[in-house]
Amino acid sequence: MRTPVVMGNWKLNGTKSTVTELVKAFSTVANDAKNVDVAVCAPAVFIGMVESLATGSNLKWGSEDCDVHTQGAFTGENSPVMLKEFGCTYAIVGHSERRGYHNETNEVVAAKFKSALDNGLVPVLCIGESEAEYDAGKTLDVCKAEIKAVIDLCGIEAFNNAIIAYEPIWAIGTGKTATPEIAQNVHKGIREFLKTFSAEVADGVRILYGGSCNAKTAPELFSQPDIDGGLIGGASLKVADFTAIIEAAKANA
Ligand code: PEP
User: Fold this and answer.
1) Atom 8 of ligand 1 has which residue's CA nearest to it?
2) Catalytic residue at 167?
3) I want to staple 5 with a disulfide (CB 3.0 to 4.6 A). Which of 37, 147, 157, 192 is the partner?
4) What are the boundaries of each domain within the chain?
5) What is the topology classification, in CATH, of domain 5-251?
6) Among 119, 138, 131, 133, which Cα is nearest to 80's?
7) pLDDT digits (tens, 9 = 90+) for 68-86
8) Average pLDDT over residues 40-47
9) Of 64, 95, 97, 104, which residue is the catalytic one?
10) Contact status, residue 246 vs residue 33, Cβ threshold 8 Å
11) C-alpha to C-alpha distances, 132 to 48, 91, 95, 102, 196, nearest whole angstrom
12) Residue whose CA lies nearest to ligand 1 atom number 7
């Protein structure tokens, strides 16, 4: 049985005041959701604040990215060692916004995944196809290539300590949630692909859905056999919405 995960991705949003409000609320909700892993991934500048506010609760936190290097002359980057020092459990890598706006290739994302894992963080590998790729029927080819780059660098066993987030790019921030059938088929295909390397790893790895997942769509998405929770953008900035999504995960735990 895989423990469901509900993870917020705040992206470039937040103020000291909203971060305080959200972390306080989500800490309480997480304390009441012992059978679900609840986390928020915050802009780096807020991670210390999240640590101060959430320590002692069941709420975990993470970063939205992670550098390949641990230290040195890499202006603007955040090292996995620093993130670990500030109590991060997770590091998102390969979000489509980073792949798109920062030209991160599959190989760069794999190196970030390795850097996070080697330094004690749980990488959350984001994968997913564009609308054109979806229309061309290439969804699984894209997802497999994104995963294969990580397997080539880190080995299949790396997924014993990692999470995959399937996030169709056409669904992110658009309000166009993938239907439960579409998402389940892709998640199943991803798990079957992982099975060709290791059945045990494939059975254990949590595969989250992300892309306009909200309080309305979460219950049916999370009831699918291969969907183990969600990576949540916009709705993780609203107490009522994120709380309802956690409730949906609890119902399927
Ligand atoms: C995301 O960016 O990871 C995401 C899932 O965003 P949204 O929920 O806003 O579509």
Assistant:
1) 233
2) yes
3) 37
4) 5-251
5) TIM Barrel (3.20.20)
6) 119
7) 999 999 999 999 999 999 9
8) 98
9) 95
10) yes
11) 39, 28, 18, 20, 27
12) 233
